[in-house]
Amino acid sequence: AQILIECLKEQGVDLIFGYPGGAVLPIYDALFSTKEITHILTAHEQGATHAADGYARATGRPGVVLVTSGPGATNTVTGIATAYMDSVPLVVFSGQVSSNLLGRDSFQEVDIAGITMPITKHNYIVKDPDRLPHIIREGFDIATSGRPGPVLIDIPKDVQTADVDFQPDDHRPMEWKTRHKWMEQAENNPENFRKAE
Predict the structure, then answer these.
(1) What is the pLDDT along the chain (197 residues), one digit of tens a residue?
(2) 71-27-134-145 Cα dihedral, nearest 10 degrees
(3) 68 in Cβ contact with 140 (< 8 Å)
């Protein structure tokens, strides 16, 4: 779970939207102990995806979402579809049952990767803990390159708690620019907006 937090910091993430649940508690524990990333608790997972979508539209940076497995993950579908249709960069992290329970109709197991396949640029089910850093970095690259859009990364609970040697990446996070010209104008000359009142 700590690797996820370190990778988010690498990507310049300082804000994440989500709703906790059993399948992501290890990530929430790691998130609780970092000061560099602020978590915005929403009342519902759909609200988290819409809030992250709004954040991405307003800042030009990818919105980041963290939800649990099962109904937590399926509640993100409308927000993911909106981001896909409007080319908004989102990276959605969903918890999942342990790898050895996949495909066994376990409690709150759902094939969220299959469900979101038509509405994401790419999605992952992380089965090898050693690949988690690479997948996170690649997910952010995919979400923000070309036509922006959502990426889903489904992380089984045993992958979250695995001990892995983490090697920080030497690449710099992308320099983010606001997507809308009016936002640049507002940042450069806020007086114009005061006069508009």
Answers:
(1) 899 999 999 999 999 999 999 999 999 999 999 999 999 999 999 999 999 999 999 999 999 999 999 999 999 999 999 999 999 999 999 999 888 877 788 778 899 999 999 999 999 999 999 999 999 999 999 999 999 999 999 999 999 999 888 777 655 555 545 555 555 665 666 565 556 54
(2) 60
(3) no
pTM of the model: 0.85
Query: Which CATH code for domain 2-172?
Result: 3.40.50.970
Q: What are the sequence ranges of the domains in the chain?
A: 2-172
Token readout for 138 is: 């690649």
Long-range contacts of 27-35 (CB under 8 A, 24+ apart): 27/1, 27/66, 27/93, 27/95, 27/155, 27/160, 28/66, 29/1, 30/1, 30/2, 30/4, 30/5, 31/5, 31/66, 34/5, 34/9
Transcribe 20-60 into DSSP letters.
--GGGHHHHHHHHT-SSSEEEE-SSHHHHHHHHHHHHHHHS
Distance CA 8, CA 61 (A): 13
Listed residue (192, 133, 125, 178) closest to 154, CA to CA: 125
